[in-house]
Amino acid sequence: MVTDKLLLIACKQSYKKHPKLKGYDCRKINIKNDSCTIYFNDDNIIISFAGTNDMLDVLEDIKFIKTKTKYGKVHKGFNDVYLDLEIYVQGVLHNLYSNKPKSIYITGHSLGGAVALLCSINFVYRNMVKKVVTFGCPRVGDRKWKTIYNKTTKFTTIRYVHGGDIITKIPKLFYYHVGEYKHIPRKTKTKNYWGFIRDFFVRKVNNIKDHDINNYIKDF
User: Fold this and answer.
1) Which of 186, 122, 183 shows the shortest CA–CA distance to 158?
2) Which of 56, 92, 116, 127 would bridge with 108, disulfide CB 3.0–4.6 Å?
3) CA 45/CA 39 separation, integer angstroms
């Protein structure tokens, strides 16, 4: 059974040079600085897009330039990553599908979550997609993108947010989330500091830590 927890573990493994997932074979695709891991067995395929290992890189990725697509305007940086990986992902899927149809699950953490959403709506095997699950995903596109995605996709889309994950709150200006929102509470209690200024900075630090995929797994 493909659970959301299994998809989260698949996301963490996708950051590794040699990913592994119990019960699945895998193929890793590396293009430029972007990567995707495809896990597969006799019944299921999991497509997992990796984000970035460096929080500063994530913040740099969150720019406000949009590009036009048939589904509305989306973040140009995220779309560029998807386009770099698209042909290779579909090539691997074509080979896997030549044997037996399988159920497809698409997932990703951080920037990888944004790429997962773009992949799912453009996917050539879209009718076989059962579920899309993102973790710590930033906002991807404009209001038209949100409307078309939510109205035209037949599969379930869930976005998980851990604590006050800062990356899920950006870009702010005219960017929107899609799918069903689910919150993962932060289980680790933080110390109470005296003074508004100190509390403000403690919250900011915690919101950055909340984005770490290890903390997603720990509190899931």
Assistant:
1) 183
2) 116
3) 6
CA–CA dist 45, 105 (Å, integer): 6
Does an H or E element contain 212, and which?
none
Task: Give the list of residues 6+ apart from residue 114 with CB closer than 8 angstroms, or none.
Answer: 75, 78, 108, 134, 137, 138, 140
The answer, yes or no, to whether residue 59 has pLDDT greater than 60, is no
Which domains, ranges and CATH numbers included, belong to the chain? 4-219 (3.40.50.1820)
CB atoms within 10 A of CB 159: 21
Q: What's the burial of 125, exposed, middle or buried (CB within 10 Å: 0-12/13-18/19+)? A: middle
CA 144 → CA 71, 116, 175, 178, distances in Å?
Answer: 7, 18, 10, 11
Whose CA is closest to 45, among 87, 107, 122, 88?
107
pTM score, two decimals? Answer: 0.91
Indicate the DSSP class of residue 168: G
First and final C-alpha spacing in the chain: 18
User: Locate tokens 């403690």: which residue?
Assistant: 202
| Range in 27-41, 105-119, 128-142, 186-200 the model is least confident about | 186-200
